[in-house]
Specification:
- It contains 23 helices and 19 strands.
- It has about 650 residues and is of the alpha/beta class.
- The relative contact order is 0.11.
């Protein structure tokens, strides 16, 4: 263990058979398809009955049932999945610990590591991965605000604190590799995955990505910047559609955050995107994965596929005629591991033996994977402490940080003198489909105790204030049956606070791109009806991307963008509404007036002629990138720029005095 890592890697590689090498390029996960045909042993009677009613839909729509099933099945059959299928070892396990509590997870992780170390020939430890976009997705972990909300803080130090906690909780569970952060540039808010990003600006995205990687990897958890490259900006704002950008645009806008994540922060893994660029899928682009990634940027880590992306070379992109050809293209381009489980890479052994793929290509990929396993310390101590996991996950200190992050994420978009509200108002109407629901955003964990906006408001106001609640309408659909009750309580209240927006996966998120940015369902109609009562209205948006609102924004007195604010979001929203916290968040994306303007972003090149629409004169945006109000006023003075002219490789110093005059 005292030898340099490179020597240990070469020593181990020299003792590995071809089969053992290829096993390190593979992953395994809970075999969901097989589970459906196994007896549902270990489940509660009512769960079993519900599964019988509609197995497929119920399993995927109800997380508790799905995870009870997967936990039960995985505990029962993991040895045959890991060892009987992979007697030579295994590179990774995918989402193997998600359905378990922190202590159970750590115990199970230790059990799996011990078995693999003792039962496989060379005893190479396994890496376990999961998602940790804004909190580890395993049970019992702290849920922070969604990525776009964290970006609204414009605070890289906060991001580093958050990601350090994410790293601590992830590793405590026994998970070593997180498929985060998402560092794609969000230039079209119609994409359902805009919520996962840090916004539209390459610099802001870069500094947030660097902070995330540094924090997570400080806890010996491998970060994976994704999706390389330009994944969320296909035609029409559609995720993973073909990209046809120039090399200059790629290098100026879409490469910087990845380059910074790797070169500045030292990220040890990377995930290519599903999309193609000029007809070449990113998952088999030698230009991206070898020439640029390793040749130009000197990347020493390993590349993992997005889930099913290698197979997509055959089934979707049609650049491979067989699974074997897909594996060959991906591997020779620089892909090191197929996730979530080996499919096309099952053909690698025959490809090598037939002379269609050089064993050197396999060796290079294995080196990169082993190097990271040594960095993780798995060969010296692959185990974690179950009691520590139970103690640290979602502890009081981490919840306080979640509250701090949620506060700093709040963006005040409009205030006609109505905010902050008095805590001693006579009565408050809390209305809307997002007022008392757990809206956490995509790639969210379970939540230990998630505070809804309604709960936060009830805890904040004085005991004499009457709180009335009505949902008003559902998130989607055309029913207005709930309007009557909502209008009634609004008329009888001093103020009406409406919580509207979106939810993942109902109206946005992965696989949920939109052609309209209006509030879904009849939420706009609900806002108008409540405004018509004459009661002052404050709207709080709970969502993950831009909203168009020109048909109702002039009717409301106040507007707050809360995003998906995490487990302490309800408390943070209440603190902002009632003045305990002065909002200071800034938008990381541009809000358009209408979808016909898209894509719309602040840092576009100068136009060659007309920069306007016939039917939309003047200011193009509803709210620009960087916009955000507060409850006070600031004055700027004594601006100095030195020097006033610089060459491309020189630095410039800009100083300004900022005074709080509110």
């Amino acid at each position: 263990s005292e030898l340099p890592v490179e020597e240990r890697v070469e020593d181990l590689l020299g003792r590995m058979t071809l089969e053992e090498k290829i096993s390190q390029l593979k992953a395994r996960m809970v075999p969901f398809r097989r589970m459906f045909f196994e007896p549902f042993e270990g489940l509660l009677e009512d769960q079993r009955k519900r599964l019988e009613e509609s197995i497929m839909s119920m399993v995927f729509e109800n997380r508790d049932i799905r995870d009870s099933l997967s936990a039960n099945y995985w505990r029962k059959h993991w040895k045959e999945v890991v060892v009987e299928e992979e007697k030579y070892g295994i590179g990774q396990l995918s989402m193997a610990l998600r359905p378990f509590s922190p202590k159970e997870s750590a115990e199970f992780a230790n059990e799996m590591q011990k078995f693999i170390l003792e039962k496989t020939h060379l005893g190479i430890p396994v890496m376990i991965h999961d998602e940790s976009l804004h909190g580890c997705m395993a049970k019992g972990c702290t849920i922070f605000p969604q990525s776009i909300a964290l970006a609204s803080s414009w605070d890289p130090n906060l991001m580093r604190q958050v990601s350090t906690v994410i790293g601590k909780e992830t590793r405590a569970h026994g998970i070593h590799h997180c498929l985060s952060p998402t560092v794609n540039i969000a230039r079209d808010p119609r994409c359902g995955r805009t919520e996962e990003t840090y916004g539209e600006d390459p610099y802001l995205v870069s500094i947030m990505a660097v902070s995330f990687v540094e924090g997570v990897q400080s806890q010996k958890v491998v970060a994976t910047p994704k999706h390389f490259v330009a994944n969320f900006v296909g035609d029409g704002g559609r995720d993973s559609n073909e990209i046809h950008f120039s090399k200059r645009i790629l290098r100026e806008i879409y490469f910087p955050a990845f380059k910074a994540s790797l070169k500045e922060a030292g990220a040890l893994s990377l995930m290519p995107a599903y999309n193609s660029i000029d007809g070449v899928p990113c998952s088999c682009s030698k230009e991206l994965l070898t020439n640029i990634l390793r040749g130009e940027w000197g990347f020493k880590g390993f590349v993992v596929s997005d889930y099913g992306a290698v197979l997509h070379l055959y089934t979707k992109h049609k650049v491979a005629g067989t699974k074997a050809e897909a594996a060959k293209k991906a591997l020779e381009s620089g892909m090191d591991m197929e996730l979530p489980e080996s499919d096309c890479f099952e053909e690698v052994q025959s490809l090598v033996k037939e002379g269609r793929v050089s064993e050197k290509v396999v060796d290079d990929a294995v080196r990169r994977i082993l190097r990271v396993k040594f960095w993780l310390g798995l060969f010296d101590n692959p185990y974690v402490e179950p009691d520590h996991a139970e103690k640290i996950c979602d502890c009081e200190e981490h919840r306080k940080l979640a509250l701090k992050a949620a506060r700093k994420a709040m963006v005040l978009l409009k205030n006609d003198g109505i905010l902050p509200l008095s805590k001693s108002l006579k009565s408050i109407a809390v209305i809307g489909p997002n007022a008392n629901k757990l809206r956490l955003g995509g790639y969210s964990g379970y939540g230990v105790k998630v505070v809804t906006p309604l709960e936060g408001i009830k805890d904040k106001v004085c005991q004499d204030t009457r709180i009335y609640f009505a949902e008003g309408c559902e998130l989607m659909g055309g029913s207005t049956e709930g309007f009557e009750e909502a209008i009634k309580i609004a008329k009888n209240s001093s103020i009406a606070i409406l919580f509207v927006g979106n939810s993942v996966p109902q109206t946005e998120g992965e696989g949920r791109d939109r052609c309209s940015l209006d509030l879904p369902g009849v939420q706009e109609d609900l806002i108008k009806k409540i405004c018509d009562t004459g009661t002052p209205v404050v709207v709080v948006l709970v969502n993950g991307s831009a909203i168009t609102m020109i048909r109702w924004i002039d009717k409301v007195k106040g507007l707050i963008e809360a995003w998906y604010p995490g487990e302490e979001g309800g408390n943070a929203i209440a603190e902002v509404l009632f003045g305990d916290y002065n909002p200071g968040g800034r938008l990381p994306i541009t809000f358009p007036k209408t979808v016909g303007q898209l894509p719309l972003y602040y840092n576009h090149k100068p136009t060659g002629r007309v920069d306007d629409y016939v039917d939309l004169r003047g200011k193009q945006y509803l709210f620009p990138f960087g916009y955000g109000l507060s409850y006070t006023k600031f004055e700027y003075s004594n601006l100095t720029i030195n020097p006033k002219k610089i060459s491309p490789d020189e630095e410039i110093n800009i100083n300004v005095d900022v005074e709080n005059v509110g």
